[in-house]
Amino acid sequence: MTEFLKTYDMQPTELKAADVAKILHCTRAMVYKLCLEYQELTYYKIGTRYWISKDSLRDYILRNRGGRSKKERNSECDSK
Q1: What span, in angstroms and rounded, lies between the C-alpha atoms of 1 and 61?
Q2: Minimal CA–CA distance to 50: which of 26, 29, 77, 76?
Q3: Phi and psi for 56 in degrees, rounded to 5?
Q4: How would you label 40-61 residue by residue, b for 16+ Cβ within 10 Å and e otherwise?
Q5: CA dihedral 41, 45, 48, 50 (to 10 degrees)
Q6: What is the pLDDT of residue 72?
Q7: pLDDT (0 to 100) of residue 77
Q8: Rounded to an integer, what distance in angstroms lies between the CA atom of residue 68 and that of residue 35?
Q9: What pLDDT is attached to residue 20?
Q10: How far apart (Å, rounded) are the C-alpha atoms in residues 11 and 49?
Q11: Under DSSP, is residue 8 helix (H, G, I), strand (E, B) or coil?
Q12: Residue 3, exposed/middle/buried by CB under 10 A (0-12, 13-18, 19+)?
């Protein structure tokens, strides 16, 4: 993911779902879920292809970069 941020300016404006999956180290099904169900990524569809803007992907990575907060980890441990 950080490689994508380092080479952000050289990336194409729109990325295919398969490309986003490689960047996020997940499956294409998860990328579709991020687009359709969770509405985390801005996309448009041409035919059967989903195109995700590189700005949307960058914003998603920066929003979710740190993982869970310390408070979330502590509350999860307390409930066990």
Answers
A1: 7
A2: 29
A3: -65, -45
A4: bbebeeeeeebbbbbebbeebb
A5: -30
A6: 60
A7: 54
A8: 21
A9: 97
A10: 18
A11: helix
A12: exposed
As a whole number of angstroms, the distance between CA 76 and CA 13 comes to: 39
- CB-based contact 57:43 (threshold 8 Å): no
Q: Identity (one letter) of the amino acid at 7? A: T
What does 9-76 look like in DSSP terms, one character per residue?
Answer: GGS-SEEEHHHHHHHHTS-HHHHHHHHHTS--S-EEEETTEEEEEHHHHHHHHHHTTT-S-HHHHHHH
**Residue 22 vs residues 1, 16, 29, 57, 74: alpha-carbon distances, Å:** 9, 10, 12, 12, 31
pLDDT tens, N- to C-terminus, the chain (80 residues): 779 999 999 999 999 999 999 999 999 999 999 999 999 999 999 999 999 999 999 999 999 987 666 566 555 555 54
